[in-house]
Structure to design on (346 residues):
């Protein structure tokens, strides 16, 4: 009886080593993504979490294997303690997953044995990894796999809690996207330490990698920027420079990770420059792999040489409101199309 139990414990330990390999070493590969049913963007966005979780599985395997070895050298008390701790934790974790999501649909690929295990690699497990809580704003939870997500990067120069016209217009774009069942978040860049540079991670306190994960988890990216002397804000240019790193970030088939994502622009000023700014931002976003929909900008500038800001207006100008509605409708439409029919390999 003990021998049979030890064989099962050994198999469970081996399975957990395999899960460690997938979660910590090969999480973003096509094969592991097929096993867990995650998209490239989801895998990219969750790889740090998966890396960490994989080691939990490895340590459970090590504890269980240690118990089997202890049995083999007649240290039965030590062996029983370690095997019950290791294998018992595996079973308990599996029960938690089963009880917390007993009605989840079957995983996409039937090929993987590990998917049928309730212990560590059930669909509910991968779904949790695929939908982490972003640290910077409202989490996007309870979404179906095909639900679209949006992220607004607000490029005002002012950190919170100062009020911002570009944030207000960005939030109105999110509201309008909500009408198309698109969930979304807004990140005010000035609230974060985003380093200058053109890489995905400039190190030493750079907060861009976390924001980048949110960009990669989104289907729609909206850049909301004020106009400064006829230009996009310096913060907006900083963001575009950081996005330049995406030129060399590709999937297994040579496509940029931004391919298939839609970009929109929201511009605020108080007198002039909206078309110039949107043209600059469009061009940069297209360069780094995003797709811009028809009428992909909403804006407000008012009359020449006056000082009223968008956030001063009540009610909101009808033209801007209807333009925001159009941007949201077209962005959601295009994002759904691209999700269903991705760009071919480059
Ligand atoms: C130095 C400076 C330059 C500006 N240049 C322009 C401009 O060229 N065109 C324009 O329409 N508004 C311009 N503005 C107005 C801002 O774009 C406007 O106040 C905007 O609503 C600020 O957005 P925020 O609250 O999100 O920062 C300028 C403001 C400042 C302070």
């Amino acid at each position: 009886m003990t021998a049979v139990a030890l064989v099962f414990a050994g198999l469970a330990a081996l399975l957990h080593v395999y899960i460690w390999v997938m979660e910590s070493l090969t999480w973003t590969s096509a094969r592991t993504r097929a096993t867990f049913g995650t998209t490239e963007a989801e895998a990219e966005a969750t790889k740090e979490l998966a890396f960490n979780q994989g080691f939990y599985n490895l340590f459970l395997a090590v504890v269980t294997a240690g118990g089997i070895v202890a049995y083999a050298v007649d240290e039965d008390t030590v062996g029983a303690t370690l095997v019950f701790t290791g294998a018992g934790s595996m079973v308990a974790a599996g029960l938690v997953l089963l009880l917390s999501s007993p009605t989840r649909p079957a995983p996409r690929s039937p090929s993987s044995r590990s998917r049928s295990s309730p212990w560590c690699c059930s669909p509910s497990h991968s779904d949790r990894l695929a939908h982490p809580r972003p640290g910077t704003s409202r989490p996007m939870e309870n979404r179906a796999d095909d639900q679209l997500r949006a992220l607004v990067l607000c490029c005002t120069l002012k950190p919170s809690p100062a009020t911002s016209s570009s944030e207000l217009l960005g939030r109105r774009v999110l509201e309008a996207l909500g009408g198309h069942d698109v969930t979304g978040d807004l990140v005010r860049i000035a609230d974060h330490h985003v380093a200058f540079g053109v890489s995905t991670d400039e190190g030493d306190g750079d907060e861009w990698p976390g924001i980048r994960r949110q960009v990669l988890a989104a289907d729609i990216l909206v850049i909301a920027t004020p106009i400064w002397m006829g230009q996009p804000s310096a913060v907006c240019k900083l963001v575009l420079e950081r996005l330049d790193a995406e030129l060399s970030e590709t999937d297994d088939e040579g496509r940029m990770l931004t391919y298939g994502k839609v970009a929109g622009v929201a511009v605020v000023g108080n007198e002039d420059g909206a078309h110039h700014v949107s043209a600059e931002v469009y061009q940069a976003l297209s360069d780094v792999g995003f797709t811009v929909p028809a009428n992909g900008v909403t804006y407000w500038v008012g009359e020449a040489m006056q000082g009223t800001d968008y956030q001063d207006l009540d009610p909101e100008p009808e033209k801007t409101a209807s333009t925001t509605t159009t941007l949201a409708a077209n962005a959601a439409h295009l994002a759904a199309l691209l999700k269903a029919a991705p760009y071919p390999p480059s």
In short: The beta strands are 149-154, 183-188, 220-228, 231-232, 262-268, 297-300.
